[in-house]
Structure formats: C-alpha cells, structure tokens
Amino acid sequence: MQHAPRRRARCSIPRADRGRDASCPYRIADTLKLKPVADNTITLKSPRELLIMREAGRVVARTVRELVAAMRPGMTTRELDLVAAKSFRRQGARSTALGYFGFSGHICVSVNSQVVHGIPGPLKIERGDLVKFDVAAAYNGYVGDTTLSAVVGSEPTPEQERLMRVTCEALDAGIAQARSGNRLSDIGHAIQAHVERNGLEVVREFVGHGVGRSMHEAPQVAHWGPPGRGPVLRPGMVLAIEPQVNLGGREVQMLPDGWTATTVDGSLSAHYEHTVAITEDGPWILTEP
Q1: What percent of the chain stands above pLDDT 90?
Q2: In this structure, is residue 16 part of a structural domain?
Q3: Are 2 and 170 spatial neighbours (Cβ–Cβ below 8 Å)?
Q4: Per-residue exposure over 231-244, b if at least 16 CB sit within 10 Å of its own CB, e if not
Q5: Among 141, 149, 173, 213, which residue's CB has the most CB atoms within a 10 Å radius?
C-alpha cells in the first residue's frame, strides 16, 4: 500500500494568538444518553479507501486549525460553528455532526469544564478559556474526525499547559499501540497509564470508535482498562482515538440539553483526537495536517 510513512504522532497544543468501574471498559453509560454504534461488524478498509480517508482527514485538520486561528475573546460558540461550516463548504465536505440525532451544530465546541459535545450557541468565549473543537466531516463518501484543544487569546496557564500536554502525550501513547497484532484494549491501557502516571484522570463515560463511511462504526475504543483484551488489530481497521482528560476528578455529568457533558467538580478538561489507520507498517495518522 502506498502512503506517506508514519511520522511521530504530533498532538499539537495550539495557541489562539498563534493561529472506578474497572470491570467493563467497553460499556457506554446509558444514563448519559450516548448514541450507540448500531452494527458491531468491524469493516476493513482497502488501500484505495484509506487514501480517500486521508483526504477527509486533511479536510478536518484544516478546518480545526482555521477555528483555532479565528477564535477571539467575545466570539460566541455559534460564530465559531459558522467558521467551520464555511470551511466545510469551501472544501466540498459535509458536517457529520449536523442533524446527528438532532444535534444542531456543524461541530462540537466545549469550553473549560465542558468535556465533550458542547452545542454551538450564544455562549461567549473569553480570554484564557480552554476550548475544545471536535470536528468531523464526510468527504467523497468517507469521514475524518479530529479534536484540538486551545486557549483563547493568551498562552496557557501552567495548569492548562500540564493538562493539554499530558492529554496530547496520552493520545500519542495510544496511537503507538495501534499496530497490527496488538489487542484493541492495548490502546486504552497505554492512555490510562500515562494519564494516571501524571496525576490526572481519564474520562470513562465516553469512548473512541471506528470510522469509515459513517462517523461512528465498530469497534468502540475505550481510553482505559487492562491490556490484551478485545479484537486483534488488523490492517485496514480505522479508529478514532480521542481521550478526554480532567484536571480534577474523572466523574462527568450531563447538562439538561442532553448533549453537553461537564466535569462534576468543575475542573478543566482537555480533549484531543486523531483518526488512525492500522497498516502493515504501523499506525497511519489520517488527520495530521
């Protein structure tokens, strides 16, 4: 298969001014109203399909960086959503979030203690806020899915920098395990081990997932748990690996909108994500710039 050789995973920490339930790691918390994967069949992608998915990955990589460059203190998350919508249109892509089980935004924008799935709206971002952009789009029939965290209008504080750095490093550790012959849970084990070694907590109520023609495919990818479990990884699998890490406790709660998850204790949360293909040569990050 012809593709660019995998480089070291680069989970960047952009700045706006620079443009204990260990028994079942594969559960989804029904109480959080999460949307389940409908089909448990893992679909292997052909070399041709992976090349298309690489183009979809470039689309969302460009869009998320355009968002970081555009955000300014006083903007609403709805205004940021419109930046993403224009980016998708310019690139000939379509948001896979818009209309998904009634979701009203083109992307998810989560601020500070919001963990994931923030609905774009009237909330204004302020200087020093930690903003997470979760961006997924379909391009030529295939989906790319990526997330970046960034601080609005200033350099990160020491605690923000620590949280963002550890989350980036944890994603890199998980990607390093996304190799043919490993087990699926090796990814989550590596993530959890790195996060907890650094005194932080990985969120357990949300999982990564397969990606392909649909945004959410099998398998679910837990970001925690013991190694050596789950399906054997094979060339052609494509996974969205997306740890969310909290500065305080790992517990989360849902807002009344049914989508936005926040930390229970009000602590900051960071989120990074790449779409990664399993190849004979190792993991291939499809959502690198």
Answers
A1: 86
A2: no
A3: no
A4: eebebbbbbbbbbb
A5: 149
